[in-house]
Amino acid sequence: MRDGHPVCAATMRDGHPVCAATWGWTSRLCSYDEGWTSRLCSYDEGWTSRLCSYDEGWTSRLCSYDEGWTSRLCSYDEGWTSRLCSYDEGYAHFDLEFWAKAR
């Protein structure tokens, strides 16, 4: 979770891989066919070096600093929210209704 250490080696509760990072951040955190962006977090795009995790899943709060992202990207207890909030970084709002179906 820190610089020079794996970001995560976890799986979502539905079994899809969360990420495959081996050092620092990966440029492909969660990219499968359900509509995730292929560049959700990257050192080159100014993201923090830490993403909160909870029991090898997601916490209800994304560690956000000055990038302007919302502090609530996902809710672990209620599954993923229906969309990813983005501001001026140029990220699209993705419909994550598949998550409710997966649950």
Helix and strand arrangement:
Elements: E1 53-54, E2 57-58, H1 97-102
Antiparallel strand pairs: 1-2
Q: Which percent range describes the beta-strand content?
A: under 5%
Rounded mean pLDDT score: 36
Helix content: under 10%
Q: Radius of gyration, rounded?
A: 13 Å
> What structural class results from the helix and strand content?
little secondary structure
- Given as residue ranges, the uncertain stretches (5+ residues, pLDDT < 50) are 1-103
* N-to-C order of helices and strands: EEH
Tally of DSSP helical segments: 1
Largest sheet, described in full?
Answer: 2 strands, antiparallel
Largest beta sheet: strand ordering? 1-2
Total number of β-strand segments?
2
Query: In whole angstroms, how far apart are the ends?
Result: 27 Å
Q: What shape does the CA trace take?
A: globular
Description:
With 103 residues, this protein is largely without helices or strands. Helix content is 6%, strand content 4%. It has a two-stranded antiparallel ribbon. The radius of gyration is 13 Å and the shape is globular. The N terminus and C terminus are likely disordered.
